[in-house]
Amino acid sequence: xxxxxxGFLGRRRERxxxxxxxxxxxxxxxPVLTAEPTPRISPETWSITVDGRVETPTTWSxxxxxxxxxxxxxxxxxCVTTWSKFDTWFAGVSVDTLLEAARPTPDAxxxxxxxxxGYTTNLPLEDVTGGKAWVVWEYDGGPLPVEHGGxxxxxxxxxxxxxxxxxxxxxxxxxxxxxxxxxxxGYHDRGDPWxxxxxxxx
Amino acid sequence: MTELPAGPRAPSGGWRTATVAGVRxxxxxxxxLRLDVHDRVDHLPGxxxxxxxxxxxxxxxxxxxxxxxxxxxxxxxxxxERLEDGEVSTFLxxxxxxxxxxxxxxxxxxxxxxxxxxxALLVGGGTGVVPFVAMLRTARALGRTDLLRVAAATRTLAGxxxxxxxxxxxxxxxxxxxxxxxxxxxRLTAADLVPLWEPEQTAYVCGSExxxxxxxxxxxxxxxxxxDIRVERFGPSG
Lengths: 202, 238
Fold this sequence. Notes:
The complex is a heterodimer of chains A (202) and B (238).
Chain A: E1 24-25, E2 47-52, E3 58-61, H1 62-66, E4 71-78, E5 83-94, H2 95-102, E6 110-115, E7 120-124, E8 134-139, E9 142-143, E10 153-155, E11 168-174, H3 181-184
Parallel strand pairs in A: 1-5, 2-11
Antiparallel strand pairs in A: 2-3, 4-5, 5-8, 6-7, 6-11, 8-9, 8-10
Chain B: E1 15-24, E2 30-37, E3 48-54, E4 60-66, E5 76-81, H1 87-94, E6 101-108, E7 120-125, H2 130-142, E8 148-154, H3 163-168, E9 172-175, H4 190-193, E10 202-208, H5 209-221, E11 229-234
Parallel strand pairs in B: 7-8, 7-10, 8-9, 10-11
Antiparallel strand pairs in B: 1-2, 1-6, 2-5, 3-4, 3-6
């Protein structure tokens, strides 16, 4: 590690232990960072499909997805651009519930999440199972705003937020890992904020 | 549905030490830093660098800034808007002097880059013009300024980063608070962009969240295919 930067003290601070290294608390702000124009997707035309290495490829419409058991997440989210946001509240369905229906085959080890915009991001299967990932349509008790991925986004809050694909419409189970959009564009393959896995090579 | 394509195979560099070679304050509330990056990996225009500051107790803060210089420039030029409550930008604007050493990482980003070969429409708001300055400088070095069309939105010309350079390059400047030639004061509209648009262009939009959203929706409304629009949104990271 290099030495201190001349003249830099940083903010006088009580370091919040919920804050991963290199992150700051965005407070009430929720910055919007997307690489493509915001799409306008009506709930009637949205659906979520789980396919690839599964026994029963399955698609749920908006209404069908809402009839699945409701699941919530309350806690922090962390963006690779260094903001974190505490005490968020999302609701939708657990990815576990979708996978129980589609039934991954034994050789499924990775997932590619795809958005309506064509955005993709890859995840190890173990990062979206065991109560760690959701497909969500509610934020703070209201509909998920379109700029934050509404009507429906993926939520994988223990990884940097580019893994939580906005406008998600497909989860494809894969035998082998493949890089998604940002993963092909210089960002880390896994993106664990506690290990500061921001860019390739971290 | 088409998959969002990966950008070109853009270069990427790890952590480096940079010596500050020049500090200028061309506008109020902004600083231009010229950095001699040791053992540098040359960037493509549109890429950014991370600057990381370390306090004596080990506390660090890092932020990303677009590069304004062309790859052929021996120095890396960053243009930083000073955010009043920003932890990093206030330090860079108020404290940094020539001769200081900064820890930087770059180049980063493989999507919002221009390789100097394809026609492009560049739409920037405020400091969102910075990556486009790098593209214009690169185009000049390549003798391919014919490939680029630029629209820059600002409140006033005096508050626009690199205003003279943009005007000299033929950029359309749209000011919300003052008229330019026959164009009255007002926000960017589709009528401003239609004359600049050609079907084979890739569109690049850069600026604040609200500007990037508005400008990219203008392009979508003009019929520009969404996959041909690349957006870089500035978060409020100070």
